[in-house]
Amino acid sequence: MSLNLTNYEFLDCGNGRRLEQVGEIVLERAAPQAQKAPGAPALWKNARCSFHKDTSWQCLDRNEGEGFPCLPDFRRGPLKMELRCSENGQIGIYPEQGENWDWLYNSLNGRKGPLRIFNGFGYTGASSLICAAALKENPLAEVCHLDSSRSAVNWARSNRERCGLGEDALRFIVEDVGRFLEREVKRGKLYDGMILDPPAFGRAKGGKTWVLKRDLPRLMELCRKALNPEPLFFLLSCHDPALSRDDLARLVSSCTGVRADEIETLDLVLESYKGESLPNGIAARWFRH
User: pTM for the complete prediction?
Assistant: First the structure.
């Protein structure tokens, strides 16, 4: 099944900015990696709201008055997710993950029997919801959605309702991913599939910091301990240029025991059919067939 039927379109990027459209709303926000000139300059005049770090969100349409337009729900396949103009410039989805959503749905759809899936750094829930939608006819499947941000997890709960999934479709956890997995290992609770999309840098309570290149190997070792000895799948993505596709393949290999050359790697790219496309991270994934 293709999940490409969507109300989102990536339009263009350039000069450190990105232009995208959801429904009828065109918005522009930061994209530091977009260093070329825009490919379709004429499209930028259609932007109705804009985010800049120093001024936050601003309305560019004089007819809108104060504030900025509310964004419509994002739709893609079985996904229906609330979008918001957040203070950090995010809107509630990472659309570059679209190819991975397709991969998850098509790999899991209709699968029967006991199955436990863990999504760490789950944000507002797209990957968790895709897994739950694919497994909605399997009463023995469990999808665990975790994020350290309570507001992100509450947002994911709201998105579960929007997708029409039952309360038992997902298990929601607000916790540090490392501490949670340590407890799961002690309990002897193992997972058949894992999804990780860790940030390049983050701060936690107590002044602790997360640095991807420094801390990811330890996290992957925890994942190895929390994985079923014969896992079903693993998906790891990141947005840090310090790591390469080969680096991710080696990390997934060390966690799953699968040879690195059996692990698929890909660039996460927001394709534009009107302007410049935007590279936005890398991924490594493996599924047991």
Answer: 0.95
- pLDDT at residue 268 is higher than 80: yes
- Name the one residue in this structure whose structure tokens are 């490392």: 178
> What pLDDT score does 237 carry?
98
pLDDT digits 0-9 by tens, 199-212: 988 876 667 788 88
CA dist 77 and 105 (Å) reads 10
Q: Give me the phi and psi of 42, to 5 degrees please.
A: -65, -25
Q: What are phi and psi of 235, to 5 degrees?
A: -135, 120
Cα–Cα distance, 44 to 37 (Å, whole number): 12
Burial class (CB in 10 A: 0-12, 13-18, 19+), 2: exposed
How far is the C-alpha of 53 from the C-alpha of 50, rounded, in Å? 10
Q: Name the strand (E) or helix (H) holding 107.
A: helix 98-108
